[in-house]
Amino acid sequence: MPILNKPQIKEQLTVNKLIRNPACDENGEFAIEAASYDLRVGTLLWQDANTKNVRLIEFDDKKPVPEPFTVQPGQMVFVITHEELCLPPHVCGTVYSRNKLQKENILAMNAGHVDPGYEGPIIIRLINLGLHSWPIRVGDAVFTVVFQTVDIDPSFHPKDRRTKEQMVASAMDTALRAFSNPFHDLYKEQISRQLTDHYAQVEADLHKKFAKEFFTRDDLKGFLFFAGAIVVGALFILTRMPWATLWKWFKGLLHFS
């Protein structure tokens, strides 16, 4: 079935279909791509690493945009879109993460297919897989939705609408049970083992270093003791030598010559 293009999406938005709270450009026109629409961050939730409490930031297009939140490496956050989808019976949707997330090593989980008749915002988990922190600001466009027509099912019944409040409550409950750093917990045994091996190697290297220094000191002590013994012996001999007799013998030797 065909994908809706920009004029078709605009036509549906004009009659309050497909998207609630759509963004508009500076000219007041719907901010639509050639065959998609970019969804913005409406609510951002995460579990505080220190207190383990769930915190959130909400977007309000009538108020100043808050400072961006910094997602640390390995940290997971929940994003609830500002826009709500309201799909008619003959349209389904597919949500993708924008290319910039992949370029910045951000993994989007549970984005994907949206059935016809769905009404409500989209909730997606993001995990920072990179080595550096990543800033995210509410109101920014981070996802893309593509709409596609389908044949209407004669037995179709619209689903109950999921409100933003329900999505926030669900995300908070999930965040309380989620890991603040899932990859650290997933590999904590491997990390612990590697740290233990590292400390053992460091300890072994220190033992070798101290042993080498100990033997070096012993060698120096032995040399100094030997040299001192020679000096003492020489002094003893010099003090016991009959110098007067030797001098007479030496003079006699010279006279004889």
| Helix count from the secondary structure assignment | 6
Radius of gyration: 40 Å
Annotation, overall tally of beta strands: 11
> Ranges with pLDDT <50 over ≥5 residues?
none
* End-to-end distance: 132 Å
CATH fold call of the largest domain: Deoxyuridine 5'-Triphosphate Nucleotidohydrolase, Chain A
Structural class: alpha+beta
**What does the largest sheet look like?**
9 strands, antiparallel
Task: Please tell me the CATH architecture of the largest domain by its name.
Answer: Distorted Sandwich
Domain count: the total is 2
Give the H and E element order. Answer: HEEEEEEHEEEEEHHHH
Approximately how much helix is present in the residues?
25-40%
How much is the average pLDDT? 82
At the fourth CATH level, what is the homologous superfamily of the largest domain?
Deoxyuridine triphosphatase (dUTPase)
- What's the CATH class label of the largest domain? Mainly Beta
| Overall geometric form | rod-shaped
Q: How much of the sequence is in beta strands?
A: 25-35%
Describe the structure.
The chain is of the alpha+beta class and 257 residues long. It has 2 domains: 6-181, Deoxyuridine 5'-Triphosphate Nucleotidohydrolase, Chain A (Distorted Sandwich); 188-256. The chain has 6 helices and 11 strands. Strand 2 (37-47) and strand 3 (54-58) form a beta hairpin. The N and C termini lie far apart (132 Å).
